[in-house]
Specification:
Helix content is 8%, strand content 35%. It has 1 helix and 5 strands; from the N terminus they run E-E-E-E-H-E. The protein has one helix at residues 53-60, and strands spanning 2-10, 23-29, 32-38, 47-52, 69-74. The protein has a 5-stranded mixed barrel with strand order 1-2-3-5-4. Strand 2 (23-29) and strand 3 (32-38) form a beta hairpin. The termini are far apart.
Length: 100
Amino acid sequence: MLICKVVKPLVSTNRIPDFEHKHLQVVQDGSTQKVAVDAVGCIPGDWVICVGSSAAREAAGSKSYPSDLTIVGIIDHWDPEAGKASPPPSGAPATPGGTA
């Protein structure tokens, strides 16, 4: 599973018949943009849970569905910065123990 941020909807009017009328979203996975089938009705700015591979096809509605990334959940609260180490305050030593 991946945590991604929804960037914007993707409109494609000419599709193969297996694509039916599923909504597509452009999602950001780190610095990479990907297209995902929207199985939950998310909007731009939402943080979402995505699945890939055969799980993506099944979540989109059928194992024969041509998808390799499907949005399966909207995250209620997600702080992507939580848990990241913050830089030392200016003037403080950058190495542990105060030696450079």
